[in-house]
Amino acid sequence: MAIVLTKLCRTLVPLHCCLHKYRFINSISPSHALLEHVKNAVETKAYRNIPDYLISFEQACLNPNPFAFLSTLPYRLRMQVVDEILQSFIPIRPRSCAQAAYAYLLSFTLQSSNPLPLGLAILQRTLRSGCVPVAQTRLLLSSAWLECRKVESQSVSDMLFEMQSIGYNPDCSTCNYLISSLCAVDQLNEAVKLLKGMSKAGCVPDLESFDTVVGAMCTVRKTSEALDMIKKMVEKVGLTPRQGTIVKVASALRANREIWRAVELIEFLEGKDYPVGFESYDLVVKGCLDSGENILAGKMVMGMTEKGFIPYIRTRHKVVERLAGAGEWKLANAVRQRFAELRS
């Protein structure tokens, strides 16, 4: 009996060890395992493996951030490592494979103690790869930008120039994303400063830059600033405002009952040979009727028809009736005759 028990114990001991080992392996959480993989990839400079690790563990609850260990590195060394990671991702195909890696790296950097200019560099590589930053990025980016501007009291151009110190040049895509992020958190004044500071940093604002700022101005009905920006686009930069942008300005002016300024806007654009679409004309004509500027409405309608635009039937009837009711028979007949010529 003693011999049998001895043999049984010898059999159970290895089994007990195996079970203990199994419990130890399974006690490692997926996020911890991922962190170890990423950390090992950085230590061995096998950066191109990182996107694959993130894809393999995509079902894991990635908290903390898989790049969190980088916070233990000195700032200069951290910048060097992040730069090497970014450069290693460039040849990866398809580019979307690196999207999660860019997202976690950008999130970690923007929430670190020194978010810029490294955060802008990561954002630039993200956008150039065709990847779309996650929604949270806008809030983190704008917060990091405002905090750095507040603490360091640097000009916008100096902030952008800092990208060059780590081997990256500011470009329109990066600046435009920052502009839209600032506008999204009601930091319009800072967005305007950024727009004006881009040129000094060697990055000429494009149509998207201006349209984003003008659109934000119209949202809060800062019509004077929006008009000034439109004129700057046309006269100084030589850009053609998008029809959608002109519509936003015309709509804001109508809402503010600044209809004469809306008319002046159309006259300004037409005088510079910039096309104005039907919707903008329609908004201005309706604004004239709303404000009781019936004669002005008639003149605007005549201008529309010269461009080949025919107002909606309700607007046509209202313009003719208002002119007749005000005793402006000559203009009313001219408008009616014009509509007849266009068979409307």
Write the layout of secondary structure elements.
Layout (H helix, E strand, L loop, with lengths): L1 H25 L3 H14 L6 H7 L18 H15 L9 H12 L7 H11 L7 H17 L3 H10 L6 H13 L3 H11 L8 H13 L3 H15 L5 H13 L3 H13 L6 H13 L3 H13 L6 H13 L3 H13 L3
Helix pairs in contact: 5-6, 5-7, 7-9, 9-10, 9-11, 10-11, 11-12, 11-13, 13-14, 13-15, 14-15, 15-16, 16-17, 16-18, 17-18
Helix coverage percent of residues? over 70%
Which oligomerization state do the chains in this entry correspond to? single chain
Describe the global form.
elongated
What string, H for helix and E for strand, traces the elements in order? Answer: HHHHHHHHHHHHHHHHHH
The number of helices is 18
**Overall SS class:** mainly alpha
Quote the distance from N terminus to C terminus: 112 Å
Number of strands: 0
User: What share of residues are in beta strands?
Assistant: under 5%
The biggest beta sheet is recorded as: none
Please mark out the parts with pLDDT under 50 across 5 or more consecutive residues, or reply none.
1-27
The Rg value, from CA coordinates, equals 31 Å
Mean pLDDT across all amino acids: 89
How would you sum up this structure, described in words?
This protein is mainly alpha-helical and 344 residues long. The chain has helices at 2-26, 30-43, 50-56, 75-89, 99-110, 118-128, 136-152, 156-165, 172-184, 188-198, 207-219, 223-237, 243-255, 259-271, 278-290, 294-306, 313-325, 329-341. α5 runs parallel beside α7. It has a domain at 277-344.
